[in-house]
Amino acid sequence: MKIIATISDLKQHLKKEKVNGSTIGFVPTMGFLHEGHVSLMEASKKENDVSVISIFVNPLQFGPNEDFESYPRDLERDARIAENAGVDFLFAPLPEEMYPARPSISIHVKDRVDVLCGSKREGHFDGVAAVLTKLFNIVQPDRVYFGLKDAQQVAVVDGLINDFNIPVELRAMPTIREEDGLAKSSRNVRLSPDEREMAPVIYQSLKWAEEAAKNGVGDEAALISGIKERIENETSGEIDYIEIYSYPSLKKMDVLEGKFIIAAAVKFSDARLIDNIIISAGA
């Protein structure tokens, strides 16, 4: 695996691969890799001739109350994980490499961002869209890999690719879970032993709603109420939101039909957990 820090070097290496007819898979990350990232890298390795991962803590997607400086970084550890997953190129630029001057053009994401977690992170997805546009142009991948644990981000990326006709296939991969169903997350270590035992109820309540929807419960309020009741009765967590929208457009629905997402965020004492389930009505 080659570790590359400059745009010019990466483009030079990947140009050679393209000339040889190689397909390129790409996993964009902010580093501090975990099993979810590993699953994306392994999928990229399996489906492409060449796999690229980027590790870049993007300053544009941090809000005024979010500490860019304290975001965890460990490139040496991440490099070992990426190499073990079969990655060919690790792109790890510094901020001044990605943003050598103040941008003259900004990207503003108008849809899919005023709900779920995005409703409390104004400007976050503008920064995500800006850095991904740059990375897609630098890497020029055939396929790009994201995890559905952050389904809102996947929806925004879907809109970015479609709106700007970016020639890349979006591969949205299933959430990686613990044996008891809890979505894997670096935040899980912040749960107390009691909270860790309770946390799988979030996914269990979403699965209940999925089953109810497939059995003909088409009332959004009834599904949300059922999820809320179970989480409140069986955990000590504080519900941040339980929301249902069409997917990936993330619009309110008069009738639950087609593909839609049921998503929840729950705050415990020292960790805020998110999870979701995507349902195709009639499936």
TrEMBL record:
Membrane-spanning parts: none
CDD domains found in the cross-reference section: PanC
Binding site residues for (R)-pantoate: 61, 153
Biological-process GO terms, alphabetical: pantothenate biosynthetic process
Catalysed reactions listed for this entry: (R)-pantoate + beta-alanine + ATP = (R)-pantothenate + AMP + diphosphate + H(+)
Chief location category: cytoplasm
Location of the active site: 37
Keyword Nucleotide-binding: yes
Enzyme class: ligase
Binding site for ATP: 30-37, 147-150, 176, 184-187
Record keyword Ligase present: yes
Subcellular localization(s) per the UniProt record: Cytoplasm
GO cellular component: cytosol
MF terms in GO: ATP binding; pantoate-beta-alanine ligase activity
Residues binding beta-alanine, per UniProt: 61
InterPro entries the record matches: Pantoate_ligase (IPR003721), Pantoate_ligase_C (IPR042176), Rossmann-like_a/b/a_fold (IPR014729)
Family from the record: Belongs to the pantothenate synthetase family.
Known function: Catalyzes the condensation of pantoate with beta-alanine in an ATP-dependent reaction via a pantoyl-adenylate intermediate.
Subunit comment: Homodimer.
PANTHER family to which the protein is assigned, alphabetical: CYTIDYLATE KINASE/PANTOATE-BETA-ALANINE LIGASE, PANTOATE--BETA-ALANINE LIGASE
The name this protein goes by in its record: Pantothenate synthetase
Species this protein is from: Falsibacillus pallidus
